[in-house]
Amino acid sequence: MLKPKVISQVLRQASTNGINAALLMNAGGSLLAFAAPSDREARIYAAIAANLWSTYLKSSNSDAAFRNEKQEDDLRLLILPCEEGVVAIAAPSITMLVCLVGDKSVDLGMLKAKIEAVSRHLSEPLEKVASYQQ
Amino acid sequence: MKKKVLLMGKSGSGKTSMRSIIFSNYIARDTRRLGATIDVEHSNLKFLGNLTLNLWDCGGQEAFMENYFASQRDHIFKNVEVLIYVFDVESRDVERDMHYYQSCLEAIMANSREAKIFCLVHKMDLVQEHQREKMYEERCRELRTRSEPLKIETFRTSIWDETLYAAWSTIVHALIPNIRTLESHLNNFCSICDADEVVLFERSTFLVIANAARINHIDAHRFEKISNIIKQFNLGCSRSQTHFKSMEIKGSSFTAFIDVLTNNTYVMVVMSDPSIQPAATLMNINVARKHFEKLAEP
Amino acid sequence: MTAQESFQALTQPYFEKGLKAALLTDREGVVVLECISPEAPEGIKDPALSTAFSIANNQASKMGLKKNNSIIGIYGTHQVIQIDNYPLIITLVALSTANTGKYLKVPTGNKTTLVILIKTL
């Protein structure tokens, strides 16, 4: 089982140095825990991020290149630089997504390292939960 | 596991009515249709999957009663796990009621020493409100003295409110074999998801089986009220040929989730921390489901 | 110089630094220009990738961070960098270990050449 408060704490730790929001959501975009300036923003980020991820997941499943070696070459991470900030999305378990939203100052390499760290940190407990949900 | 439950009391005291409400989805006003029970009506009620209540609803007319104590004595009073004795609070012949009650206790003592005994002072709605407490206390005192040396548990009940659920919840609680384990797991579940309260209901009767709480709540009868309300709602659902699976109720200071837990139970989780997302709670209920299913296996 | 040749010239330095494929497509995935090395993963020309970009590019622009410029998808062994050059999309494919930042500089550093290229088409 998940302790929502512990996860919130992990996400709060990630939202420093230009990262404004850190979210954990399910594949449908429902928030499980977050650290963000407001509930409203968190909900919007979660809904869009889940959509973005599923769009790319679908495309890579239909894409011959990535179908060949599906196991090794599945989608790990999405980074979306925008004019006023940057979004990163990763999947710590098959049913869950983490999303970080940073401002313009955030270095892409740092963002990548950070989301990989958060995702790795959450993946073990989340995989355990996911195995129970099947 | 089959447990024999005797339901006894004077004719017209309301035994069959309460049984029909709790186990056969009657609503209180439907019980007017019920006639007097002839001899003994047996019913096997599946409860929590592996537990079956073998309920003996014993018609209370004097001719039958005499028979129970004489020719059918062994047959009726052997291997009883629970005796539920129903008293009509409005009865005019209290002495006679007590006489039958005591004969019944004698037979129980001789045949099923370990049986748990519950006395329901029923039809409390007929007593004027300001007299209820006093009246009930008096009856209890008398019942206790008359029952000695046996220990009894008493309840005031009415089919028109949640008191009936409170009494029957306590009764079935006493019958569930692994209740302690169930309670400790429920406590764990409650603290892991930071819930205020977690309540386990039996699926078809909606009787409260167990609960765990991390806060004190002022209303001691809230679960029975919820049982009552949800059961009514469920009956409404079945009239339109559907069953409800889960619901989420948002109040100004809390959110309550009611969801199917195992094949035989519903769970209610009450959360008051607004920082905990509903999806997280729902996921934890999902995880708990597998766990409790394993626990429920015989 | 044909458009294909100038595209090749434009992307050549990046191939030397490990780029596996460079494509210029429209939003439905129709390839306009391409340079693909033999080591590139098969089926990289699948239009699904471009349509995914056009949907995601549009959605990501609604997150309150103004316009989305590019999307980097990192897979187990490859990374796909898609850069918006409305109405066209530049798609670059490299190993997932490659330095992403280097490739992202393609449109800004060579914008003029590219704009001319796109216009001539």
TrEMBL record, chain A:
Q: Name one GO biological process term.
A: positive regulation of TOR signaling
Q: Report the residue ranges that make up the Roadblock/LAMTOR2 domain in this protein.
A: 10-92
Q: Which GO terms describe its molecular function?
A: guanyl-nucleotide exchange factor activity; molecular adaptor activity
Give the signal peptide as a residue range, or say none if absent: none
For this record, the Gene Ontology CC terms, alphabetical, are:
cytoplasm
Q: To which protein family does this belong?
A: Belongs to the GAMAD family.
* PANTHER family (UniProt xref): LATE ENDOSOMAL/LYSOSOMAL MP1 INTERACTING PROTEIN
Return the protein name: Roadblock/LAMTOR2 domain-containing protein
Organism expressing this protein natively: Mortierella isabellina (Filamentous fungus)
From TrEMBL, chain B:
Any one GO CC term of the record = endomembrane system
InterPro entries (alphabetical)? Gtr1_RagA, P-loop_NTPase, RagA/B
Which controlled-vocabulary keywords does the entry list? Cytoplasm, GTP-binding, Hydrolase, Isopeptide bond, Lysosome, Membrane, Nucleotide-binding, Ubl conjugation
Q: Which GO terms describe its molecular function?
A: GTP binding; GTPase activity
One GO biological-process annotation of the entry reads: cellular response to starvation
Location of the protein in the cell: Cytoplasm; Endomembrane system; Lysosome
- Function statement: GTPase involved in activation of the TORC1 signaling pathway, which promotes growth and represses autophagy in nutrient-rich conditions.
Subunit composition and interactions: Component of the GSE complex.
Entry's family note: Belongs to the GTR/RAG GTP-binding protein family.
Q: What is this protein called?
A: GTP-binding protein
Question: Species lineage, top-down?
Answer: Eukaryota, Fungi, Fungi incertae sedis, Mucoromycota, Mucoromycotina
From TrEMBL, chain C:
One Pfam family, short name: MAPKK1_Int
Cellular component annotations (GO), alphabetically ordered: Ragulator complex
* Gene Ontology process terms (BP): cellular response to amino acid stimulus; positive regulation of TOR signaling
Q: Supply the Gene3D superfamilies for this chain.
A: Dynein light chain 2a, cytoplasmic
Q: Can you tell which superkingdom this protein's organism belongs to?
A: Eukaryota
> What family does the database annotate?
Belongs to the LAMTOR3 family.
- Per its record, how is this protein called by name? Uncharacterized protein
Q: Which organism is it from?
A: Mortierella isabellina (Filamentous fungus)
Q: What is the lineage of its organism?
A: Eukaryota, Fungi, Fungi incertae sedis, Mucoromycota, Mucoromycotina
